[in-house]
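wait is this the right file?? whatever heres the structure
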């Protein structure tokens, strides 16, 4: 589930159509009819019966991270690994013309500046109808002159640096599980005004929790102001967004793919053939891929109640989830794929013809808490010890009668098409721009400013991140969150308690019942400077290629 375009109706609704540079042999370039086409679609994950609406205080799930493509194909590439959409819950039908949610997850996006074959993670908060987008601390839509989500996420963890370009996994991650989700924490008090207007701001702080091998716990949260301030201009939104509303526990789970490169060519007999870029899935249970594990919904009893009582003067909350507030969703039989090869007709209209997915993959509910695919060895191949690669060659089978046309896998294609000679190498692209933040002396980045730094983190994606330590309440996101000094100081007191009581090594999300946990990029695990151990957070201010 991926967010990068304000004009998108849905997270993948508006496809970026920038240039793609793909390495081809001379024969492939000269082959008659070779075209720049792409593969796109969804893998639909079926879930069991309705979850009780009281499990509306957040969710978590475990998803494998792996290199979907053998070689990163350029900045037109956009696809997610399995994920979900977290929408607000309503007592009746959802309001019309008010699309707003949390999506994001693991994947690759057209605006990822420093991509690798290993996926990254973004938070993906969507303001009403994509008017604003917040992907992480200092990462979102707009510009610093006109931020549209750049201040929407506040850093919470003192032990994990969140890069501007997205959260990195350890390079080479291949099938290991990342646990993630959002739980509501009582960090902010609800208030009756927003930016001086008589518009309420709720007290929900939807907080990203991670469970990785080398880091566990809360990371960052969407400020309530990110949602509520849009109602200042459009009062009908007041009280309708995620700052105020709980979340709907009956979420869709899908894998959404917007662009995988492929080529189509015709043989001399008029038959059409296609070749897709080598596309793989994790082989983590024999000939099967577990794609989603332990999809869980939480009630307030899971965590909110104990933390709220703690902040009100009660005993400390350990941060551990109360099992009485947990509902693990089940997966059912079924599910399907909508992957299709998209091309252009002679009149410029788009042509969409489905892949015969069922000829090489069978969706399965491995057990009630695991969903994935079983791969047919006659059409797929094992790549290394941990991947299975889909068929690369396809033949267009024209529909007869009521049957529709479809792309059917074949072991080979005619040499005259030139498709055999395609080389799916990583393209040479212009060097990506530096991610920077405001440097003016009067900006919220400088007044009151950091307490320590600068520091450097050298990441596995080839970038270096410059970061500083800020007092939690004085970080730029909170200085731009419509809070008074007193309101920020009350938050500061709560966060000091969290930092003292919740280390990065304890279990917060319920641990997985199978599989190995992925590692985050080790360079992101940081240690607060002496004297700033509690109540201070690392904030990235710049990210650039190591040799920029």
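ok assuming it is, sequence goes like this
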């Amino acid at each position: 589930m991926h967010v990068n375009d304000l004009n998108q109706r849905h997270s993948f609704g508006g496809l970026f159509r920038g240039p793609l540079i793909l390495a081809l042999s001379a024969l492939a370039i000269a082959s008659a009819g070779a075209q720049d086409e792409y593969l796109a679609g969804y893998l639909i994950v079926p879930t069991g019966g309705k979850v009780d609406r009281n499990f509306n205080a957040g969710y978590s799930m475990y998803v494998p991270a792996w290199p979907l493509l053998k070689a990163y194909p350029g900045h037109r590439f956009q696809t997610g690994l399995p994920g979900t959409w977290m929408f607000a819950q309503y007592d009746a039908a959802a309001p019309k013309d008010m699309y707003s949610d949390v999506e994001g997850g693991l994947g690759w996006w057209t605006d990822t500046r420093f991509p690798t074959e290993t996926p990254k993670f973004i938070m993906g908060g969507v303001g009403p109808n994509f008017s604003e987008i917040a992907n992480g601390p200092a990462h979102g839509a707009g510009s610093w002159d006109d931020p549209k989500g750049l201040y929407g996420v506040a850093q919470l963890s003192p032990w994990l640096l969140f890069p501007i370009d997205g959260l990195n996994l350890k390079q080479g991650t291949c099938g290991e599980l990342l646990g993630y989700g959002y739980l509501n924490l009582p960090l902010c008090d609800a208030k009756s005004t927003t930016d001086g207007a008589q518009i309420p701001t709720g007290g929900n702080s939807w907080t990203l929790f991670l469970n990785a091998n080398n880091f566990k716990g809360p990371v960052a949260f969407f400020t309530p102001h990110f949602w509520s301030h849009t109602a200042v201009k459009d009062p009908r939104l007041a009280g309708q967004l995620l700052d105020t509303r709980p979340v709907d526990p009956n979420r869709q789970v899908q894998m959404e793919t917007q662009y995988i490169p492929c080529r189509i060519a015709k043989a001399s007999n008029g038959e059409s053939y296609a070749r897709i870029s080598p596309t793989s899935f994790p082989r983590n249970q024999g000939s099967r891929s577990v794609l989603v594990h332990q999809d869980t919904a939480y009630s307030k009893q899971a965590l909110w109640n104990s933390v709220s009582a703690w902040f009100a003067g009660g005993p400390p909350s350990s941060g551990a989830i109360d099992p009485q507030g947990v509902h693990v969703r089940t997966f059912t039989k079924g599910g399907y794929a909508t992957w299709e090869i998209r091309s252009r007709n002679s009149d410029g209209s788009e042509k969409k013809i489905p892949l015969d997915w069922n000829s090489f993959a069978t969706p399965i509910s491995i057990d009630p808490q695991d969903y994935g695919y079983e791969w047919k060895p006659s059409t797929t191949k094992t790549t290394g010890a941990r991947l299975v690669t889909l068929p690369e060659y396809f033949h267009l089978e024209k529909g007869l009668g009521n049957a529709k046309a479809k792309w059917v896998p074949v072991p080979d294609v005619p040499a005259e098409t030139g498709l055999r000679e395609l080389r799916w190498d990583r393209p040479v692209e212009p060097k990506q721009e530096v991610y920077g933040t405001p440097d003016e002396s009067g900006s919220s980045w400088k007044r009151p400013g950091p307490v320590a730094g600068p520091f450097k983190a050298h990441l596995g994606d080839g970038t270096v991140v410059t970061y500083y330590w800020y007092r939690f309440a004085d970080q730029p996101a909170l200085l731009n969150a419509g809070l008074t000094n007193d309101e920020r100081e009350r938050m500061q007191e709560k966060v000091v308690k969290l930092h003292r009581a919740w280390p990065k090594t304890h279990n917060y999300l319920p641990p997985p019942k199978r599989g190995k946990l992925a590692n985050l990029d080790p360079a992101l695990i940081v240690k607060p400077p002496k004297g700033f151990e509690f109540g201070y957070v690392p904030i990235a201010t710049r990210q650039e290629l190591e040799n920029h």
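The two ends are 30 Å apart (CA to CA). so i think its the right one actually
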